[in-house]
Amino acid sequence: MRSGAFPLRLITYHSALDTRRPSSDTPLMLELEQALERILASIPAPKSELIPLGEAHRRVTFEKIAAGIDLPPFDNSSMDGYAVRAADILSATAQAPVSLPLGGRIAAGERFSGELSAGSCIRIFTGSTLPAGADAVVMQEDTQIDPKRPHEVLFLDSAKPWENIRFRGEDIKHGATIAAPGELLNAAHMALLAASGVAHVPVSRRPSVALLATGSELKEAGDSAALAPGQIYESNRTALAQMVRSVGGIPKVFPIVPDDAEETRSALERALAECDLVVTCGGVSVGEMDFVKGAFEDLGGQLQFWKVEIKPGRPFVFGRRREKFLFGLPGNPVSAFVTFLLLVRPALLRWQGADRVVLPASAGVLAEPLSNPGGRRHFMRVRVDGKGNVHSSGIQASHVLSSLALADGLVDVPAKTNLSAGTAVQVLRWE
Ligand code: AMP
Ligand code: MG
Q1: What is the pLDDT of residues 320-379, one digit of tens each?
Q2: Which of 281, 327, 337 to mutate to test the pocket of ligand 1 (most atoms within 8 A of CB)?
Q3: Collapsed DSSP state (helix, strand, coil) of residue 393
Q4: How far apart, in whole angstroms, are the C-alpha atoms of residue 176 and residue 169?
């Protein structure tokens, strides 16, 4: 993501439409990067807790974890075959095999205290301890055993010294870092930690995140009654809850809040009391039914800014009340989704001390033009085909969910810009 590329634009609020807000010097409209910087700068330092490794998926490591053992812990075979001394089968070919007597067998997991004596071989399996004295493993496919002479192995090929051997510590050395501080742990990290014998992981505490949807037109999905005229099913909290979970947060879904000043205030009050962060959607623009900003200020919260120069999602409120934070997202489903990814997701990650907080991106090439005639950066929904070609995923209006569901990611198209087919782009992705 670009950083610091845009001058901070200070716009003092002066809309005649909003009668609840006194005019103030609050810088309202920010560029995305400035908004993000200000949010991240407000987030407090993480606190740690120790949890079982099995619960560490999508959690952030609080501190460096060092390996307590070498990996692999001992030299071992990477093949099912025979441990040998390479010098003993130098001349072996399919036409003139070399025969060696079978001196033993080491199963995986078995302790082996013996030694390979010169001029013999030992049956060995993938993961079996390499016997002292051996310097190569010949794969089973390069050998033969005559059923009449079961204690002799015919080698059909020579072996290079140290072939098919996995060395102690070649993966990880005792003391090496196996998880850096601030790492968002995934299944692969967990495998490495498990292999190193780690049973408990120091991670940052998870933020609890209240999710509130405002709007008198909203109805709970799954309600038995059909939609009344003018109603729509509420859809933002489900998506937001999932996105909160995927960065380690604990979502707490609150009931729908009707467009009413008192109801908005009491819902916000409860949410602020129960959770670390509060995410609302809807009710943050300048319509006379938009109550979130006023309610938050009534509760002693301070608005830090309330517009970001992006599309979708210009109305975006960031506020603070002591150590609690308000993220007021616009109600349109795509606007809520995109502003969450661009501004709330990083905050949740930073709250947990994560190192990388911006969305992962992958390179692609536009298969068709992406045009943004408007005056704000447009994060356009795209799908990426199997060849890495990037297509618009459909209608880009902020209420259109079908193109969001088809999308693999977003492309940041600058204001008043037409990106032609063939342009190399970065596709911002979500999990
Ligand atoms: P608002 O930001 O409250 O002005 O809402 C903008 C648009 O998004 C309106 O069409 C709302 O009906 C719609 N909307 C607001 N909140 C939600 C929600 N939680 N789920 C689905 N649509 C919503
Ligand atoms: Mg509304």
Answers
A1: 999 999 999 999 999 999 999 999 999 999 999 999 999 999 999 999 999 999 999 999
A2: 281
A3: coil
A4: 10
pLDDT at site 24? 46
Distance of CA 23 from the midpoint of ligand 1 (Å):
26
Query: Cα separation of 200 and 190, whole Å?
Result: 11
Q: Which of 12, 7, 4 is nearest to 28 (CA)?
A: 12
Return the bridge partners of 296, or none. Answer: none
Q: Which residues, judged by CB distance below 6 Å to any ligand atom, belong to the binding site of ligand 1?
A: 213, 215, 217-218, 232, 234-236, 281-283, 285, 287, 330-333
Q: What is the mean pLDDT of residues 289-315?
A: 93
DSSP letter string, 283-346: --SSSTT--HHHHHHHTT-EEEEEEESEES--EEEEEEETTEEEEEE-SSHHHHHHHIIIIIHH
pLDDT at position 288 over 90: no
Pairwise CA distance, residues 155 & 144, whole Å: 7
User: What confidence score (pLDDT) does residue 27 get?
Assistant: 56
C-alpha–C-alpha distance, residues 96 and 312, integer Å: 74
CA 332–ligand 1 middle distance (angstroms): 5
Percent of the residues in the chain that have a pLDDT greater than 90, as a whole number:
88
Residue 29 DSSP code: E
Q: Retrieve residue 116's tokens.
A: 């390979």
| Cis previous bond, 72, omega within 30 | yes
- Residue range 191-204: average pLDDT? 98
Per-residue confidence (pLDDT) for residue 225, from 0 to 100: 78
Pocket test for ligand 1, best of 212, 232, 237 (most atoms within 8 A of CB): 232
Examine residue 312 and say whether the peptide bond preceding it is cis (omega within 30 degrees of 0).
yes
Q: pTM score, two decimals?
A: 0.88
Q: What is the mean pLDDT of the chain?
A: 92
Backbone angles phi, psi at 378, to 5 degrees: -115, 120
Helix (H) or strand (E) holding 22: none
> Residue 308: which pLDDT band, with cuts at 50, 70 and 90?
very high
196 three-state secondary structure: coil
Q: Which residue's alpha carbon is at the smallest distance from atom 10 of ligand 1?
A: 332
DSSP 281: E
- pLDDT value of residue 22: 39
Closest CA to 114 of 93, 100, 128: 128
